[in-house]
């Protein structure tokens, strides 16, 4: 199954009490990818990943995750999937290492020749930066430390596919940076595919090779941060200093402009900087575009009074 996508979704639909939340989603994630799912509050990100995790029944469409339909997959499949939910409060009196060992024991029977299971609790605590707290009771951890433990629990079975729902909420900048390194390590060296949701666009840009934007029940964008910026015709800003004066120029493609600038005879250009459109600017433009499309009342429908 090496050439099979890790996640393959066609026409996924979901509704709650007759209200459509996902309106035909197509999605394909290849082995080893790190993909970020973005979208406004209530867009359906958690619903989507809960369906992929097998925790929620869909209303329609085809879903294959690691070669199986999550709605009917068994324990061996579940052992391949790691999950970090948005929040859960439990096990307050347990000690950190002891909790990981307990969870880890569930995965022992699912070790394979290419996947040693579970992670040793000590190694995992080292990996997520919780080693000094191995003997602490869970209830004594700070919010960010608790979140690191959530990530460790998601990883303890050494999953092939890891779902992370807003994993870095409450992380300080150092913890956030360490977490980004961890995700890179998982995809580069541990053959782990990662799908995460986040509201932190800088984070998505930093760790995800591909960004999906979910809005109005559909995926409205799919590509690298740079590709999405090109799609909304983002402009790059070029600034430089010349003969003591500061100059600014905007261009869709900065390369020809910079080449001409530097080729000019008798000019000394210093402090040259090119700033590409950020993912935040791209995201805001894309979501605004969907919202203005939705603002049009469809023909034949009457607006509620
Ligand atoms: N169990 C449920 N019953 C009814 N409606 C639900 C349920 N779960 C989610 N919804 C609704 O479905 C929509 C999508 O919710 P979901 O939690 O998937 O969005 P999200 O993109 O993850 O949001 P956020 O960014 O706020 O976490 C929202 O309007 C929400 O109110």
Q: Mind explaining what this structure looks like?
A:
- It is a single chain.
- 33% of the residues lie in helices and 26% in strands.
- By secondary structure, the protein is α/β, with parallel strands linked by helices.
- The model is unreliable at 296-305 (pLDDT under 50).
- It binds adenosine-5'-triphosphate (ATP).
- Residues 16, 21, 39, 41-47 line the site of adenosine-5'-triphosphate (ATP).
Keywords:
3 domains, three-stranded antiparallel beta sheet, Rossmann fold, globular, alpha/beta, 305 residues, ATP binding, binds adenosine-5'-triphosphate
In short:
With 305 residues, this protein is of the alpha/beta class. It folds into 3 domains: 155 residues, P-loop containing nucleotide triphosphate hydrolases (Rossmann fold); 62 residues, no CATH class; 60 residues, no CATH class.
């Amino acid at each position: 199954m090496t050439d099979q996508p890790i996640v393959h979704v066609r026409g996924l639909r979901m509704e709650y009490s007759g209200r459509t939340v996902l309106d035909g989603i197509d999605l394909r994630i290849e082995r080893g990818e790190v993909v970020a799912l973005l979208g406004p509050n209530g867009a359906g990100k958690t619903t989507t990943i809960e369906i992929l995790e097998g925790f929620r029944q869909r209303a329609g469409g085809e879903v294959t995750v690691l070669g199986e339909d999550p709605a009917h997959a068994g324990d061996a499949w579940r052992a391949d999937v790691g999950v970090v939910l948005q929040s859960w409060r439990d096990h307050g009196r347990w000690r950190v290492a002891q909790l990981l060992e307990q969870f880890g024991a569930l995965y022992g029977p699912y070790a394979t020749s290419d996947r040693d299971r579970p992670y040793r609790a000590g190694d995992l605590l080292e990996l997520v930066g919780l080693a000094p707290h191995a003997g602490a009771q869970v209830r004594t951890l700070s919010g960010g430390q608790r979140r690191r433990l959530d990530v460790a629990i998601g990883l303890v079975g050494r999953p092939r596919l890891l779902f992370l729902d807003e994993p870095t909420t409450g992380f300080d900048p150092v913890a956030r940076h360490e977490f980004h390194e961890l995700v890179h390590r998982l995809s580069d060296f541990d053959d782990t595919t990662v799908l995460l949701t986040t509201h932190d666009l800088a984070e998505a840009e930093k760790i995800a090779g591909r960004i999906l934007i979910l809005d109005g029940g559909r995926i409205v964008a799919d590509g690298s941060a740079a590709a999405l910026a090109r799609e909304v015709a983002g402009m790059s800003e070029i600034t430089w200093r010349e003969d003591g004066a500061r100059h600014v120029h905007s261009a869709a493609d900065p390369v020809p402009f910079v080449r001409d600038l530097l080729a000019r005879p008798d000019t000394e250009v210093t402090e040259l900087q090119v700033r590409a459109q950020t993912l935040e600017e791209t995201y805001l433009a894309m979501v605004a575009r969907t919202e203005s499309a939705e603002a049009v009342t469809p023909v034949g429908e009457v607006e509620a009074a």
